[in-house]
Write a structure and sequence with these properties.
The protein has five helices and 37 strands. By secondary structure, the chain is mainly beta.
């Protein structure tokens, strides 16, 4: 049995006034977000559960007003600076648009709204709402996931995934929609890492190389000129094209003369179909002998779904399916113009997993994966970070190492609602009685 070196009941000031339905935590900035039953969020900066009590009780909370559909932390990095941004999605104009609100932590340790620059036709910054209006219908559900300088948004109703690139521009940030994926198959989970976008589907996951999705599509000069000629006439002056708009052909463009650099190219949002084979898109199926056995109770007609995807380290991912089985996914680093190599291996654990929590870490030290049956127990599984490989024998060897290490357990006093990784050996636990606990193991 595992030795718990520290266990603490997290007490926040001001305390939550309504039921906490979910927790989001960013380990790099120590920022904590609590989602409440009324769909509002409370944001707490500098929350370190195992520090002195004063560090927890003096945090200044900011309330994100409802309604909110989803949120994520996003890391922005340049060569000389870094920030952590909290992104919140909300329905706007009775759900006909999506409102994206952005918050960051100032130097005085307080959350504040961030101004956003955007110049695409379907994105606009609203001064009154202090957020970005995205001109697509919100629908019944929105899912946000963030990584470094990139976040993705999935709409169940629109059946689309949008990829956004974000960069620092002085005190503001710039938002660019770089790709949209039309989903012709159901999506049950989504994950973004430094190299990959992964969609959880029926009977497996679909892997996209992230780089093409962030780079967007380059419009050639000839395409620009063709578009310009549709709206007016072109005349060359000192190496530039002057576009004279024709009456009735403005299409919402100002009737003033527009100077266009004839030698320039323009970035356009990349459009893809979910089950396309372009840019190295791969579907990786679950491998299970049960489904191959005709005598199994799980016949080929039964569909299992990838309901959560967790980055482990060095292009390794853990996938949880809808029947409680856990899989190890190994991906190779994508090279420009090549297809990533993918391997999937089912882990033969003795329990049916309901909750998985992984602290992402690219270091070479062993990793702790937290799994729970959704009742009162949490298992700490130690995974040694062997070199990434796509060899089937090596994949099985890694799987065996994971299975043989699942022998440590924490018993909790409340039924487990959510597990959030704090560090390699520490977690936050949200109980059913609105209590938040922190555990650390030796």
């Amino acid at each position: 049995m595992v030795i718990v070196t520290q266990a603490r009941h997290l007490r926040l000031s001001p305390p939550p006034t309504t039921t906490v339905s979910a927790i989001i935590y960013d380990p790099t900035s120590l920022c904590l977000a609590l989602k409440h039953s009324d769909s509002s969020f409370s944001l707490y900066p500098n929350i370190s559960p195992f520090s002195q009590p004063s560090a927890t009780t003096t945090a200044s909370a900011v309330v994100v007003s409802p309604p909110s559909s989803d949120a994520t932390f996003l890391r922005l990095r340049t060569t000389d600076t870094s920030r952590v941004i909290f992104v919140v999605s909300s329905p706007h104009l009775a759900g006909n648009e999506i409102l994206l609100r952005f918050y960051n932590v100032r130097t005085d340790n307080k959350f504040t709204r961030v101004r956003v620059c955007c110049n695409q036709s379907d994105l606009s910054y609203d001064e009154r709402k202090l957020g970005v209006l995205f001109k697509v219908k919100h629908g019944v559900s929105i899912k946000l996931v963030g990584s470094t300088n990139v976040f993705a948004m999935y709409s169940v109703s629109a059946r689309k995934v949008w990829v956004f690139a974000v960069k620092i521009v002085g005190d503001d940030i710039k938002l660019m929609k770089t790709a949209v994926i039309d989903c012709n198959l159901p999506v049950f989970s989504i994950s973004v890492s430094v190299e990959f976008l992964i969609l959880g589907e029926e009977n497996g996951v679909r892997v996209f190389n992230l780089r093409p999705l962030v780079k967007g599509k380059l419009i050639k000069k000839s395409d620009n000129l063709k578009l310009q000629k549709m709206n007016g006439t072109i005349s060359q002056t000192n190496g530039k094209s002057i576009l004279l708009l024709k009456p009735g052909k403005t299409s919402g463009i100002s009737s003033k003369l527009i100077n266009v650099n004839a030698n320039s190219a323009k970035l356009k949002t990349l459009k893809m179909i979910q089950n396309s084979n372009e840019d190295g898109v791969r579907f990786v199926a679950f491998k299970s002998a049960e489904f191959e056995d005709p005598n199994s109770s799980k016949g080929p007609w039964m569909s299992i779904k990838a309901i959560s995807i967790h980055f482990l380290a060095n292009n390794k991912f853990l996938i949880l399916d809808s029947v409680g089985d856990l899989y190890l996914l190994l991906l190779s680093n994508p090279i420009s113009g090549s297809v990533s190599t993918c391997e999937m291996k089912k882990l033969n654990l003795t329990m049916k997993v309901q909750i998985v929590a992984v602290h992402p870490d690219d270091s070479t030290r062993a990793k702790t994966v937290w799994v729970s049956d959704g009742e009162y127990t949490i298992y700490a599984i130690i995974v040694s970070d062997a070199d990434s490989t796509t060899n089937e024998n090596d994949t099985e060897d890694i799987a065996e190492k994971i299975q043989s290490s699942a022998s440590e357990v924490i018993f909790t006093s409340e039924k487990i609602q959510q597990i959030i990784p704090l560090a390699a050996n520490a977690i936050l636990l949200l109980g059913q009685a609105n209590n938040i606990f922190a555990y650390a193991i030796s």
